[in-house]
Automatic annotation (TrEMBL), chain A:
GO terms for biological process, alphabetical: vacuolar acidification; vacuolar transport
This protein's UniProt keywords: Hydrogen ion transport, Ion transport, Transport
PANTHER family: VACUOLAR ATP SYNTHASE SUBUNIT AC39
Gene Ontology molecular function: any one: proton-transporting ATPase activity, rotational mechanism
Pfam families for this protein: vATP-synt_AC39 (PF01992)
Name the record gives this protein: V-type proton ATPase subunit
From TrEMBL, chain B:
Gene3D superfamilies given in the database record: 1.10.287.3240
Organism: Klebsormidium nitens (Green alga)
NCBIfam families according to UniProt: V_ATPase_subD
Protein name: Vacuolar H+-ATPase V1 sector subunit D
Family classification: Belongs to the V-ATPase D subunit family.
Automatic annotation (TrEMBL), chain C:
Protein name (Swiss-Prot/TrEMBL): V-type proton ATPase subunit F
Pfam entry (one): ATP-synt_F
Keyword field: Hydrogen ion transport, Ion transport, Transport
Domain of life: Eukaryota
Amino acid sequence: MSMYGFEAMSFNIKDGFLEAIVRGYKAGLLSAIDYNNLCQCETLDDIKLQLSGTDYGNFLANEPSPLHTATIVEKCTQSLVSEFSYMRTQASEPLATFLDYVTYGHMIDNIVLIVSGTLHERDVQELLDKCHPLGMFDSIATLAVASNMRELYRLVLVDTPLAPYFAECVTSEDLDDMNIEIMRNTLYKAYLEDFYNFCKKLGGATATIMCDLLAYEADRRAINITINSIGTELTRDDRRKLFSHFGLLYPYGHEELAVCEDFDQVRAAMEKYPPYQSIFSKLQFGESQILDKAFYEAEVKACVLGYEQQFHYAVFFAYVRLKEQEIRNIMWISECVAQNQKARIHDGIVFIF
Amino acid sequence: MSGGGARLVVVPTVTVLAVIKARLIGATKGHQLLKKKSDALTMQFRQILKRIVETKEMMGETMKQAAFALTEAKYAAGDNIKHTVFENVSSATIKVRSKQDNVAGVKLPKFQHYTEAGETKNALTGLARGGQQIQLCKSAYVKAVELLVELASLQTSFLTLDEAIKTTNRRVNALENVVKPKLENTISYIKGELDELEREEFFRLKKVQANKKKVADRELKEKLDAAGRVADKLAARAEEVVSMLTANGKDEDVIF
Amino acid sequence: MAMSQEGKLVAMIADEDTITGFLLAGVGNVDLRRKTNYLVVDSKTTTKQIEDTFKDFTSRDDIAVVLISQYIANMIRYVVDNYRNTIPAILEIPSKDHPYDPNQDSILSRVKHMFSSDPASASRG
């Protein structure tokens, strides 16, 4: 651990305050007792009351009854956004850039939404309302001036932080008739690789932990893309092109995934990779639904582990992921309560501690 | 006769009576047939009602499952997935064809769902996250649409049948309560009139007969009178003869 | 068994989640004039908008069935109850926050009405 020595000397000068803040935020995540209480709720108003006793506070106080799940989720997301924005405004380089990288995933979703919306001539304001607040950037509103993909790229996308991802992966001739999901995942592949390289350059504990977290992310995407593209128009080559060029599965695992034709072949291919073998071993045959939750659980575990060490940026990335999982949990609990499906309530909660 | 209710305005003759009687027979037959139709429709109606109630109950469960499948999809793929789904809307791939069934002469509209050929745009939605759940959610809602279209069919049949039964019953009631009584009244009216005529004829005949009798009596009396007079004359003559005989001899009795 | 030549649409007036599900199933349609066959009802939607859309959907000849969330139908109950045509068919559906209540259904309440009076009433007309 001696290689971390120098970081420890200088880290707190610039980033110590925000590390303290983010650890405070993390300590404010819902506890086992909170989840236990939430699971006892009979109505969404009970949930509101229960949440008002946590760090969320009275964030739902002004919401009229009847309360909807969507409102709860929206308000929880706002709480994440305000925490994140606070940290982003306080951050100095290179943490500021690191935090920007954390938001690019949402930015890709927003751009894809606006691109497809623009091509379908939707109302711009309506589209902007649908964008994820973490993925906003200054020129996003001007996206709507273009009417075809090439114009969009030439006039607008070149000025966004995502421009290199377009440039690297998409020749502009393809853009017009490209499937929107392939575009999204092509961008995401380039983003993950870029983020990975950025973290590697940062070095130290940030590089070690972040590269592991991003490798997991890349591998999970590769596995999911494989499973979800089975039986679709996506060819093996197209499938392989969407895999990021790093991670535990790169390169040999990718070759195996590219040729998989059913779920059990994916499972067989993953036998050789212990972290994923253990995830797949949790599933009974034909239980692909539980895979998502198993992946979430592994991610949460890895993120929580990041807090064991000090003086690195992965805690910021991990916090966003953990909070997003918490919001997913709250969404799940609220939906189970609202839809009178309380028997299923434990199927979706991933505990974070 | 006039207290018997409404009747047609007709000339009460035997010919008209025959016509009205034929119409009554027609109305009675029509009434029976319509009654049968109404019964057939009502039976069908009741079957449909039963199925509507069953299907509506099933709908509650199917929709509940579909809603939860969407929750699972959102959990796996993220809440933003709905925006992608809304953006992917172009032309409907599930559509409804309508055809008609015929029940006792009533045309019942029926809906039938079908899937338009071609890949749906959502095949790759959730590619990197939650794609499987999205497909499961999709099938759950396809199932819901199938059920709802069937229910719409039943409901439309229900409304059409309801209307048809009401119309048929109105006709049945009209025949039963208006047309048939009217015809019956007319018949009894004509019959009444004809009876009246008959009685008048009879009376007149009687009168004529009485007259004839009177004349006959008078003639008879005259004849009798005449005969009486002859008899008187003869009697007078006889008396003369007797007196003459008595004058001639006392023993003339012995001769008689 | 006459078939109509052109397939017709299923239209929807419901909350966002319900419509998302049906769009996923492939029911959604946008025509050349960007007219959709669905209306998403949220807290910002006015009763007037719902009523206008309902009247629009029920008068379009390319629509065979109109699905409407029961709680939304309740907002424009007088319009729904006064709708007397058989095509397009109106169907009240449950939404996740509002379980289906057969007592509020305008068709089912007519059914109930018929059965609750004497059994012969259905044939009395």
